[in-house]
Design goal:
Order of helices and strands: EHHEEEEEEH
Strand content: over 45%
Strand order of the largest sheet: 1-7-6-5-4-3-2
Radius of gyration: 16 Å
Distance between the termini: 43 Å
Number of helices: 3
Number of strands: 7
Structural class: alpha+beta
Largest sheet: 7 strands, antiparallel
Helix content: 25-40%
Amino acid sequence: EFRRVSSDLEQTLPVSQATLWALLNDPAVLAKTIPGCNTVREVGPDRYEMGLKLQVANVSGEYVGTVAIEEKREPAHYILSVEGQGSIGFMKGHAVFDLEVVSDAQTRLLYTGSGEVGGVVAGVGQRVLSGVAKFLVGRFFKALEKHIAETQANPASK
């Protein structure tokens, strides 16, 4: 059994398009902003092995998988593809990131993501999974915003 989930979000961030592009292509930033991520290791150009610990409703577990940055059109578009397996099942998905210039110091980040989960976690229910997907995307955006604010306040911490 598997379930599909999807989520869309957009947010204007206080950085240039080039800066946001660099952040979204930095594995250290991805490790810091992807909810539940506890390890990231580069295994090839734009390919990473990642460890995640997630809780969905009353089901929690760890996943190990790969993340790939695909279809790059610098500085405005890429797709982040994720595949993983773990103690509570599997996950597979992708996130499309589009970066639109608002001004020299502001960029709108548009996110569209979808995925599938299977195994024990798929038994949680579609409505719960959709809510969790939106929550995780929201946490990613909050973590990215926090990272930007911290690096602007202290440029040496980049």
